[in-house]
Design goal:
about 500 residues, OB fold (Dihydrolipoamide Acetyltransferase, E2P), RNA-binding
RNA sequence: GUCUUGUUAGCUCAGCUGGUAGAGCACGUCACUUUUAAUGAUGUGGCCGAUGGUUCGAAUCCAUCACAGGACACCA
């Protein structure tokens, strides 16, 4: 039984006593007429008054008790609502007879949610407070809160019981406020540019648009398996074929892969597609987007991230091959052929999966020697065609694509390219991916012939981009684990029953 | 998936090379009408993550498992 804890039993008893005395411990008769933040702002003038009070003003606030100091016939209570923390002064003689002694002192405690009416005053120590004239219990908390000073620090509790984390740690609430603002600003930015927000399927017959292993589910009525989407790309491009010229989608993707500080099985991205534009236009709009975010979030353009400082006014642009030598320190001659890369990797005591092609090996060199060194925002361009199966080839050099990835603080934040709209080329790219799949690359793209057919009707020249929202928020909030920017990060089940149920299914 | 560290009261943590479990907060009782993690006195609270093993004796040593953190691998 989950309520067999002694402290919980005590609190259940207190709730009962409150109820018996006519104080509903789960009342919804709320008369709050201001938030704590507003109260503190509106009454900031009280400190300048001679008597430090104004008994003519009256406010009703509500919130959760975070601290409680009973000092005989008077008490101080700190309550918190979403907007802030307020000190309440509760004196016996200002409340109905015996309420203070029999109800407040005995049955009200930290964690309870209360409503208090009264007038503003400033205490001897100079804190703007509220002098209580009425006191109502709104919600009795029967589980005790964590320790008042240290709070909860155990990450497992913080993630599994996020509500406790949010109650105890106001900076966590702030992080999620920022996250919400980022999503809403992103939406507004693209809407203002004339983009149309769309919703495409989460359940795909073919998991396409990225290199990743999908989750599988089953549709009973149709008797077929569906894949949770790994990316919305191929659907969004079908919409461009259909004649929408600028679309975006902000939503979840699902990838059946490992979990760590930068990976959660479900994560949020924005993907946007823009007809009659190229990846060069995307570089410009990306810079503009960051400027917009920083302005509206009031962030300094030199932003600390852990031990690093990222200068968001210093966008760089460098082709991938050039970055290998200039940033990665890889000799020019060790980047050009399969054999030279393999022997270079060998000289560094590194091994790769056998059978990799030139483009894949160049990607390996980049991941190994360049990526973590890209601190200020850097667009890496000219990706090899082998690792860009949905991107348009460069007209000058068909071995590379019109693509970039944006790296900040050593992490990939965005992936973008001029879209491949040649259906014959797209078909052959899929065929190459199919061969890779047959050769054991279980993350190679799936053939999507319906998508190729869509392209065959003609997709206007288009540029498209995906931005990882979670990682972006990590960057902007100086968080270093994706779990700290997800309200409910993926966790393994704790008790055996949950595991059993899953096995039975 | 691999390596590594952790899991002791509701929470934050002690508990050394094995000898029947400790503090602070919270909670109970008492005192206290301007405190700031209030204070003083006093008391309650534990299957020491789970299962096996070694031992006269295990929170402590060993093994396995579960969950978590970190690092690596794969990926965004």
């Amino acid at each position: 039984m989950i309520f067999d804890n002694k402290f919980i039993q005590q609190r259940i008893e207190k709730a009962k006593l409150l109820k018996e005395a006519g104080h509903n411990p789960y009342s919804n008769d709320c008369k709050r007429n201001t938030t704590i933040e507003k109260y503190l702002n509106v009454n900031s003038d009280i400190a300048d008054r001679e008597d430090k009070r104004d008994e003519k003003r009256h406010y009703t606030v509500a919130g959760r008790i975070k601290l409680l100091r009973v000092m005989g016939k008077a008490s101080f209570v700190k309550i918190e609502d979403e907007s802030g923390m307020l000190q309440i002064y509760v004196a016996r003689d200002n409340l109905p007879e015996d309420f203070y002694n029999d109800m407040f002192k005995k049955n009200i405690e930290v964690g309870d949610i209360i409503e208090v009416g009264g007038y503003p005053f400033v205490t001897g120590k100079g804190e703007l407070s509220l002098h209580a004239e009425s006191f109502t219990i709104l919600t009795k908390a029967i589980s005790p809160l964590p320790e008042k000073f240290h709070g909860v620090t155990d990450k497992e509790i913080r993630y599994r019981k996020r509500y406790l984390d949010l109650i105890m740690n106001s900076e966590v609430r702030k992080t999620f406020h920022t996250r919400s603002k980022v999503v809403s600003l992103t939406r507004r930015f693209f809407e203002d540019k004339g983009f149309l927000e769309v919703e495409t399927p989460m359940m795909h017959p073919i998991a396409g648009g990225a290199n990743a292993k999908p989750f599988v589910t089953h549709h009973n009525a149709l008797g077929i398996d569906r894949f949770l989407r790994i990316a919305p790309e191929l659907y969004l491009k079908r919409l461009i074929v259909g004649g929408f010229e600028a679309v975006f989608e902000i939503n979840r993707n699902f990838r059946n892969e490992g979990m760590d500080a930068t990976h959660n099985p479900e994560f949020t991205s924005i993907e946007f597609y823009w007809a009659y534009k190229t990846y060069k236009d995307l570089i410009e709009i990306t810079k503009e987007y960051f400027k917009y975010l920083f302005e509206h979030l009031n962030l300094p353009t030199r932003l600390p991230y852990g031990d690093l400082e990222v200068d968001f006014e210093n966008f760089q642009e460098i082709p991938l091959i050039e970055s290998l030598t200039k940033i990665g320190g890889v000799p020019v001659e060790s980047c050009k052929t399969i054999d030279s890369i393999l022997s270079y990797l060998k000289s560094k005591n590194m091994t790769v999966k056998p059978g990799m092609n030139l483009g894949q090996l160049q990607g390996e060199l980049f991941d190994e020697f360049v990526e973590e060194k890209l601190i200020d925002p850097t667009f890496i361009t000219e990706y090899p065609v082998e690792i860009s199966p949905l991107a348009r080839r460069s007209d000058e050099n068909p071995a590379i694509t019109e693509r970039f990835e944006l790296f900040i603080a050593g992490r990939e934040i965005a992936n973008a390219f001029s879209e491949l709209n040649d259906p014959i080329d797209q078909l052959s790219r899929f065929e190459v991916q199919m061969k890779a799949k047959d050769n054991g690359d279980d993350e190679a793209h799936e053939m999507d012939s319906d998508f190729v057919e869509a392209l065959s009707y003609g997709m206007a020249p288009t540029a498209g981009q995906g931005i990882g929202i979670d990682r972006l928020v990590m960057l902007l909030t100086n968080e270093h684990s994706i779990r700290d920017v997800l309200l409910f990060p993926a966790m393994k089940p704790i008790n055996n029953e949950e595991i059993k149920t899953q096995e039975e299914e």
